[in-house]
Write a structure and sequence with these properties.
Number of helices: 10
Order of helices and strands: HHHEEEHHEEEHEHEEEEHHEHE
Shape: globular
CATH class of the largest domain: Alpha Beta
CATH topology of the largest domain: Aminopeptidase
Strand content: 15-25%
Mean pLDDT: 87
Oligomer: single chain
Low-confidence stretches: 1-15
Distance between the termini: 30 Å
Structural class: alpha+beta
CATH architecture of the largest domain: 3-Layer(aba) Sandwich
Length: 362
């Protein structure tokens, strides 16, 4: 049974029969096709599971046991801010990135509850997935959020995207495919949540380090390139992550914080590739969630306005780059090299290849 049969919702369309005349609860091929069309991410998830090294005890559930070569792991979703498991997630983050690079545990707990650090309500709730080994030890943590895309009128369009915040795995379990399984669970839940709310999950995307491209390519993500000059010249979109910490008195970036170049990567789940407007909506969703602080965070209107203007300027620079360029293409590492071999000139966002990022942490 596919995840569409079990959780896609077509067997609950009202009355005793679906719109195609089949009794509710009975598989309906037409309804399943409609479900796949509305949520192409579900079809992508099935493809990822079919190629997985792991066997899922319940392929229809995001929280399930997975097994490989006799070893069993449990995927769980953390939705309660008081969950003791969040302390284990915090430890994984600190072990990977160092305490100075990780927000306090209370920030993590507030995000899971859909609250900001200043006590205001956030429009989204952090989704955290934890994988345990047979000994009950936390070995992989994966988190992100399901975000609405907004149109020019600042209203939700009915389309959504899943933004990945981080993926980490304990050092003794890295490179084994566990983060991939957590990603499958996260996107499965995001697609089903979108469907239940009458929306469509269009993309998964994130700010990616240069060392992690191999992993993201393996789940379908690609970098974005725009035509620059002739038809055989392309330049990677220059994505900038704004500062993540600010002076609450002035609205300026904190003394130890600053903008960082990252690689923007995206997956459209086998559907049509994103156009420029959708890319801009995705970037806007990033900045709304991660970077634009609420008024409650600052001591004055002036500081609030300065902080939001800072983020808006970085967003405007990205928009100008996008609008002044030509056709967009999306390439993984393998197809990028094939394009180069065919005579295509490709310029990378090399500023994002700096810093202290080491081998993939998952």
């Amino acid at each position: 049974m596919s995840i569409h049969d079990q959780r896609g919702g077509f067997e609950r369309m009202g009355g005793d029969m679906c719109p195609h005349g089949n009794f509710k609860g009975s598989p309906c091929a037409a309804c399943q096709q409609e479900s796949q069309k509305k949520q192409p991410a579900l079809q992508t998830i099935e493809q990822l599971m079919s190629k997985s090294k792991f066997k899922r005890l319940n392929p229809e559930s995001a929280t399930t046991q997975i097994e490989i070569e006799g070893k069993k792991f449990q995927i769980e979703s953390i939705e309660d801010r008081e969950s003791p498991a969040l302390a284990e997630v915090q430890k994984l983050l600190i072990d990977t990135f160092g305490e100075e690079e990780v927000d306090p545990e209370e920030i993590l707990r507030s995000a899971v509850a859909g609250e900001t650090a200043w006590g205001t309500t956030d429009e989204t709730k952090y989704k955290v997935y934890l994988i345990r080994n047979e000994q009950g030890e936390a070995v992989t943590a994966f988190a992100g959020d399901h975000l609405d895309l907004h149109g020019a009128d600042n209203r939700p369009t009915g389309e959504t995207m899943f933004m990945v915040a981080y993926a980490v795995t304990a050092q003794n379990a890295r490179q084994g495919g566990l983060a991939r399984e957590a990603y499958i669970s996260a996107v499965m839940d995001a697609a089903l949540e979108a469907q239940q709310n009458g929306k469509q999950l269009k993309f998964a995307a994130g700010e990616c380090t240069f060392t992690s491209e191999k992993f993201w390519n393996s789940v379908g993500w690609k970098r974005a390139y725009a035509q620059s000059g002739d038809k055989k010249t392309y330049e990677e979109l220059r994505y900038i992550q704004p500062a993540l910490d600010f002076d609450e008195k002035t609205g300026e970036p904190a003394e130890d914080a600053g903008a960082v170049a990252e690689h923007f990567m995206v997956d459209s789940f086998g559907a049509e590739t994103p156009d420029k407007n959708q890319i801009m909506q995705t970037i806007d969703a990033f900045y709304r969630w991660c970077n634009k602080w609420p008024r409650a965070a600052f001591e004055s209107d002036e500081a609030f306005q300065k902080q939001n203007a800072y983020v808006a300027q970085i967003e405007e620079e990205f928009k100008n780059q996008l609008e002044s360029s030509g056709q967009l293409i999306f390439l993984d590492a393998a197809n990028r090299e094939k394009a180069r071999a065919a005579g295509v000139n490709i310029t990378e966002h090399s500023a994002a290849d700096q810093g202290h990022a080491g081998k993939e942490d998952f």
